[in-house]
Amino acid sequence: MVASIHWGGNWGYEIPDEQRTFAHVLIDDAMVDVVHGHSSHHSKAIEIYRGKLILYGCGELINDYEGIAGYEQFRDDLMLMYFATLSGRDGALCSLDLVAFRIHKFRLQKAEPQDVERLAATLSRECRPFGTRLIISTDNMLRLDWT
User: Fold this and answer.
1) SS3 of 133, please?
2) Which pLDDT tens digit goes with each residue over 65-123?
3) Domain ranges of the chain
4) Over the chain, what is the mean pLDDT?
5) How far apart are the first and last CA of the chain?
6) Is the Cβ–Cβ distance between 129 and 47 less than 8 Å?
7) Dihedral sign from CA coordinates of 14, 119, 57, 145
8) What are the start-end ranges of the H helices in 1-147?
9) Euclidean distance between CA atoms 49 and 45, whole angstroms
10) Please, how many CA atoms are within 13 Å of residue 142, restricted to the half-sphere of its CB?
């Protein structure tokens, strides 16, 4: 089961304790397998809790407000597609692959290697408190590591 939740601020990487607690309760009490958080205009941290996937902020894939000034540090022009493989037995995460794109003039283009490296570094920094990190795999894709 997937719970898709519009929560949190649009900018910034902070994950409030209330969000984390709520995500854990969804997994513990509502038997949710994936918590899909959205609202942020850029990607945020990823947590694996009791084998279940929590995406705290997925950013957007396509939007209609390209070029909002004042938030360039968050690189909202870099988007991710998330491909999760879950166990059919218990819904636990088996793997999470991410494909990076750059939006320009409302069109998606595969992200350049330096943009993929930036995403990997930024998200790994933000994921560190949750025990996860992103590594660059083949074909300039990202893969979640939580071992």
Assistant:
1) strand
2) 666 666 565 556 778 999 999 999 999 999 999 999 988 777 788 888 999 999 999 99
3) 2-61+72-145
4) 87
5) 24
6) no
7) negative
8) 17-29, 113-127
9) 13
10) 29
pLDDT digits (tens, 9 = 90+) for 77-93: 778 999 999 999 999 99
Residue spans of beta strands (DSSP E) within 11-146 = 34-38, 46-49, 52-55, 78-86, 93-104, 107-110, 133-136, 142-145
Nearest to 45 by CA among 77, 80, 69, 71: 80
Among 37, 42, 29, 48, CA closest to 93 = 48
For residue 46, give both structure tokens: 């990823």
Distance CA 41, CA 31 (A): 28
C-alpha distances out from residue 20 to 1, 75, 101, 103, 105, Å: 18, 24, 27, 29, 35
Q: Kindly report the length of the chain.
A: 147
Q: Give the global pTM.
A: 0.88
